[in-house]
Fold this protein.
Amino acid sequence: MAEFPGELTRAEQAEWVARFRRMAADRWGSDRAGDIGEALDATALAVGAVLKLEFAKDEAPGFYLPVNFDPVAVEWKVE
Amino acid sequence: MTQRGLVGLARALVAGEISARALVEESLNTIEKMEPELQAWETLDKERSLQEAEHADRALETGRPLGPLHGIPVGVKDIFATAGLRTTMESRIFQDHVPARDATVVARLRGAGAIVLGKTVSTQFAMGDPPRTRNPWNPAHTPGGSSTGSAVAVATRQAPLALGSQTGGSVIRPAVFNGVVGFKPTYGVVSRSGVFPVSWSLDAVGWFTKSVLDAALVLDVLSGHDPADPGSADVQYEPGFELVEAGERELRLGVVSGDIERTASAEAQAHFFTVIEQLRVAGHTVELFDLPTSYFATREAWKVIEYSELASVHAKLFEKSPELYAPVARSHIEAGSLIPASAYVHAQRLRRLFRQDMDRSMTAVDALVMPGAPGEAPADLSTTGDVSFYTPWSLAGLPAVAVPTGMSQNSMPLGVQMVGRGFGDVLLLRAARQVEETLQFDPGVPPVAVLR
């Protein structure tokens, strides 16, 4: 990622927001999709920005921070 | 008594100048007087805390103090499991939940001699819905969140120490808004076993105290590998309290400018530059810090990871009872469940890249320093405040500390946030103590506490 690829264009923003509103309506119903509102649009824009990132092939080869994190083992038990 | 701060109290207790029983009684009396107005506590454990205080006093009489936190009353955020004491996550789903065991950090506090007074108010599931707790400096302003009750309890001297947790800014932000020190260690340094998660790969335990030295004493007690937490780093921990107390060294501080500086209010910016000038005059080196390119999508990456993992944490509970969730928590879970896996993977890759970039670029400084918040606590009880000043550092798992530095024109606390290198927790606290010593600022006791 020699250079940050830049912010989403207005057209890309509109496309991501529309896509998430459609997905929310399918999953949660159109009334509820309207209620999610701000969180939904912010999530759509974050997803769009993150997916626009371009990594060099040898960058960030692992997912997690440099600790022995194992997401599969994570569990919160109600004791 | 509770004006002394944690280290002062710990020394006075072990010296026999005060008794644990008297200290716990004072805390409980203070809470009782302030609680109708502040609402900082979800559950109090009066009987057990008084019994434990008597046990501590008896132990001291036989010449055997219980540990470095002997007789210290503490508050615990209500998402930490406490054996035999209700732990609600501020949700009706868990309103009668009484854990059988303590979270690892609660057990470590008790093992060091601390006495759990009770559970402090969190936002629901440590998310963004505003809590009922009020800001003691002005009840019309948000106290911040999500570790709200813990910050307020320490600010009003109800307890010299309270535990919180941070996924985005849930320790640093309420610390700044309430005028106390808040410390969030490096991801992996302190166990989260028994703490209800927001986001497994972002969550960190933190705490609130009156001073940086107090926070350093707690770090020595709580740090250390815990096999029960898969995110716990298996590294050697060296005690840092004595180093932090010894202090005195010239600092190299990197000032984070750019978007953080621009987002801050004019008052917050002016105050921050005054602080920087005081540090420079005191002989510390202060220079602009160039953020790496990978910084510029960190807030988006944080959101993608937090919401995705949140949706996973709550998947089953939410399916059963969506109507029991507060509006912000519910909307974040619903939005998070729509995030594609490819975005989550991209976000985690960016995260690692940013951490690597920060590890490289921070070798030239002891710590980064920036305004602690965009301004004073907003006069808006529908929000817990802006989280954007904290999410890049939480994403990278870097240690952060809030230090009170002044008051706004409205008599609300202002502060700085300092960020350290990964696993450079002690170095960060040494730097923060130097800042504290240089500025010699004490916000004092909030008006609501003075009236009592």
